[in-house]
Amino acid sequence: MVRTLSRYGILGVNAMVVARDYETLVRTAAECGADLVVSGAGLPLNLPEYTADYPDVALVPIISTTRAAKVICQKWERRYGRLPDAFVVENPNTAGGHLGAKSEELGDPALNADRVLSQLLDYLRDDVGVEIPVIAAGGIWDRADIDRALALG
């Protein structure tokens, strides 16, 4: 039904890894023609398995650390022969949602959004050797914040 309302738009689904019916949600979204699946609230380590029959569905993990991106890239490449189509970077200091951060992590400089964005871009360029779009989420309030995020790459 949604596709008939938006024939030319991009349809995406945000599926939380911690959801009891996560696998079913992702498979159903792919079967029904979703263009992308954004997935967080845990590491979406098996996401490519659930969309294997729909290789055109873009897979976009939500992460808060470069370490999480490394784990995802290494496992996906080894097990599924693919990498994420993009990353969404959130951190517990500026983004709402289901980040799973502990209270002692709030304010941790290692989770500073600009720092994580910069580290992630370096990792993707230097270690993975590909350009994967990185989307900054949270803490962007005005044009200056947009410009700062864009300047990071």
Can you describe this structure?
- This protein has 153 residues and is α/β, with parallel strands linked by helices.
- It has a single domain, classed as Aldolase class I (TIM Barrel), CATH 3.20.20.70.
- It has six helices and five strands.
Describe the structure concisely:
The chain has 153 residues and is α/β, with parallel strands linked by helices.
Strand content: 5-15%
* Annotation field: number of helices: 6
User: What structural class should be given to the helix and strand makeup?
Assistant: alpha/beta
Helix proportion range: 25-40%
Largest sheet: 5 strands, parallel
- Quote the average pLDDT: 86
Can you tag this structure with a few keywords?
TIM Barrel, 5 strands, globular, 153 residues, alpha/beta, five-stranded parallel sheet, 14% strand
